[in-house]
Amino acid sequence: MAPNRSSAHNSLNPAESNVDPEREIWSSILQQVQKTATNKLPSNKSILVLGDNDSGKTSLIAKMQGMDATCKGSGLEYQYLMVRDEYRDEQTQCGVWILDGNYTWKSNLLKFALNADNFADTTILLVCSMSKPWDIINSLHHWVEVLESHIKSLNLDPKKLEHFREQNRRRFQDYISPGDEIEGLSAGHRNRTYSYNSGGGDSPTENERDPLPDNVLCNNLGLDIVVAVTKADYMSTLEKEYDYKEEHFDYIQQAVRKFCLEYGATLMYVSAKINKNCDLLYKYLVHRIYGLKFKTPALVVEKDAAFIPSGWDNEKKIAILYENIQSFSPDDNYNDIITVPMNANLTQKEQEIVAEDDQIFLIKLRSQLNQQVSVSSGSTPIRSTNTTPTVVKPRQSTTGSIGGSNQSTPLSGTNTPGGEGVLQSFFNSLLSRKSTSGAQSSPGMVGGSPSIGNSPRTPVSSNTSAAAAASASAAAESLRSRDVHAELDRIIEGNKQQSQLSDVGE
């Protein structure tokens, strides 16, 4: 009888026959950790953003980060997106490389964002702007050519590159529109043929795929590409200012969708200004890169919010847009239909404010201060050798005229030094009053005093009137004499004050 191998084995290894239960618990925990470790979100994924200047690359990434303020960089800019799997309570960071639009002198920087090591973990985001629709197709072709030339410079193993292309082809063909998973109506399932196991099992094994049309994924770069048409809110401005019609926007969309079919890319219209489809783009990128759930189907109803996922589109669906294109043919050259308007504002870029050098700023400030000091010193000099005496304007004198009216005498003589003009005008006024006082009567004066109000006049005799006239004349002469002496005193006092001010100034 043959010996029992298990008993012999246990006898040779007594330590294994008596396994510690605690050790078994720890080993089971380690096995579970190893199994779940493969399900963690990888941290080596990245997105490479390519596009012209002023196409909105930085603003779009900032909006997906949840920020409104943006700070545009230069050269090759690096940022990241926070990715969180709420189902498994895991999170990671997805790197974002943003290449400046002036690629002609920054070509050596692209190797840091896309190289042979991270080729399989990189997603391409091509950005073009609706603010310049006449440059959309040219911009997309330009950056694809840049990407193709860079991939050639990497000198990848042909087998690896073909493997990447096959993965890209499978992603395109295996697309399942949300809602069709249960029904199995996706294009990927229709393009498969299955053969069953010889054992009669129900699990199908993939045998082959139907070949793709000639114009679909004909330029396979081996990379997952997403095309984002930014500034979709500018379409309303194109309608108002440049007379764009619905057929123009349909023509642009069908041209971009044909481009996306050639490269197996996804198309999405976004606007960071009004936050349209920015969150949808973030969720789709996370879905494509990390395999998280995404339940939004294709969107083709709203012209400024179109979403065409990779693998959903085909020529028949694009042909629906042809029905609205009447003024031109969809096969016409893009640059012949979407041209640059005559009144187009091609300088939409805001000028950057550059601070000048500190020394230049201080020199300008010193010159301004010197000008202010010179102006102030010229208007109010601190010391002056030739001082012109200032004539103090006397108060207006009021004399009671014979007719009972008050008359003001102008006393101004600033043009003559010493106040001689004031005296001359004053004495001239006295002479004119004296000459007229003798010829006029004074009905308003009774006993040398003016009448008050409109009291009735008292009739007087000839002797009384003569006495009254003499008394009025004597009162007028006395008043004139007092005014002359007062005016002379004021002039003398003003000259003394002016001379004292001149002495103090010297």
From TrEMBL:
SUPFAM superfamilies: P-loop containing nucleoside triphosphate hydrolases. Residues 182-210, 374-470 are annotated as: Disordered. Keywords: ATP-binding, Cytoplasm, Cytoskeleton, Dynein, Microtubule, Motor protein, Nucleotide-binding, Transport. It comes from the Eukaryota. PANTHER family: DYNEIN LIGHT INTERMEDIATE CHAIN. Belongs to the dynein light intermediate chain family. This is Dynein light intermediate chain. It comes from Blomia tropicalis.
